[in-house]
Amino acid sequence: MQTIHLRYYGDLAADSAGTTDERPPLVLLHGLGFDRHQWAPMLQELAVLDPDRRTVAFDLPGHLDSPAQPSYDLGDVADVLHGAVVEAGLHKPVLVGHSIGGALATIYAGKYPTGGVVNVDQPLLVGPFKDVLAQLEPTLRSPAYGEVWDRMLAGMGIEQLPQAAQELIHASTPPTQELLLGYWREVLESPAEVLKAKREADLHAIDAPYEYVTANEPPAPYRQWLEANKPGVRITVLPGSGHFPHLAHAGELAKLLAG
């Protein structure tokens, strides 16, 4: 089994496992409101399948053991992440990002050398999410902001997961109002077409394989958009996992990465 160590690289806390070998290292990025511990089941699977592969699971800025940052715009977070990647000695890593971590991985790969991107259940077009967030914005900016997070959690299909995975999710510290407003600022304040253009530019700039892992077959218009902007993208559907394919199907995802 791999030995996992808590490390600090740059401004980010991380669990580090494996050793440097000839393959691109893996960088694991959790979703908003969660933390690096969500990757524990997959790290266990990788310890069996690919024990020597260097794998680092980061806490995003402001989460768990990583300190707050002045800005949580994803372009700025990508710069903080790059500082940590460089300090950790991770050359052209494969970025595996869940939820907002998938958007972060995409933005990072459009800016910095990357061996590949695995986006776990994060559509890159804001779509209806922006409309829902706009309706909830008054509550989000009030002392009752926690109700927004509770509503989001309720729609993530947590009940579909094994009990151990559910407990892992609920063990995460709920995000503060500062984090929710910070990480969602661009969605709240930017027109959908502006955000769409940015994600298209990111995809065009990525010179590496791109994989989209999701629980449900993507709607045809979104699949067409993704395939048009990232030719060669591979889409993998792992059903029955709600918003958490990496927890419901840790073994399958680990096999994908080991391959």
TrEMBL record:
Q: Which SUPFAM superfamilies match?
A: alpha/beta-Hydrolases
Which UniProt keywords are present, listed alphabetically? Hydrolase
Fetch the InterPro entries from UniProt.
Answer: AB_hydrolase_1, AB_hydrolase_fold, AB_hydrolase_sf
A Pfam family this chain is assigned to: Abhydrolase_6
Q: Where is the AB hydrolase-1 domain?
A: 26-255
Q: Which Gene3D superfamilies match?
A: alpha/beta hydrolase
Tell me if Protein transport is a UniProt keyword of this record: no
**Which is one GO molecular function term here?**
hydrolase activity
Provide the protein name: Alpha/beta hydrolase
Ranked from the top, the taxonomy reads: Bacteria, Bacillati, Actinomycetota, Actinomycetes, Propionibacteriales
